[in-house]
Amino acid sequence: xxxxxxxxxxxxxxxxxxxxxxxxxxxxxxxxxxxxxxxxxxxxxxxxxxxxxxxxxxxxxxxxxxxxxxxxxxxxxxxxxxxxxxxxxxxxxxxxxxxxxxxxxxxxxxxxxxxxxxxxxxxxxxxxxxxxxxxxxxxxxxxxxxxxxxxxxxxxxxxxxxxxxxxxxxxxxxxxxxxxxxxxxxxxxxxx
Length: 192
Prior knowledge:
- The chain is mainly alpha-helical.
- 79% of the residues lie in helices and 0% in strands.
- Helix 5 (80-87) runs antiparallel to helix 6 and helix 8 runs antiparallel to helix 9 (154-182).
- The longest helix has 29 residues, at 154-182.
- The protein is elongated.
């Protein structure tokens, strides 16, 4: 998802015009697809496979990355260093991914950490519903076992639920820390 979104978003932001319009319509189409419903449909028709889940999450999640990269590239393409790279005759690949992408990386890191967290939640949701992987352990399966009996077993729900919460929270903190490390202009120390 990150690679697809970076390439498409970079092309949309750099060229703008008709490329941007067509790219944004493609992004809107993929954002209209509900990921969880698509996962449920594929599991029902093709069986349970972790690789299929990863591919579906990756195919439907690239649009968010494309929007972030597009916005950064629209901002960066008017900068002097990009205009100098164009004037010196560098190839498009070098301008996009060697000069522009490293300077627009901070929002992409935060989006990536949120993307990993949402993928973990999607897999846990499928496993909780009983449509996840059968032979492999999952926090969603453990949560499902907590509500299967006639009484609610809190000890079976607290630990996997806490593990899901702490993992998602850790990925979010990691994304924020990477953003602060890569982009010192938006760090918390500079804002105060």
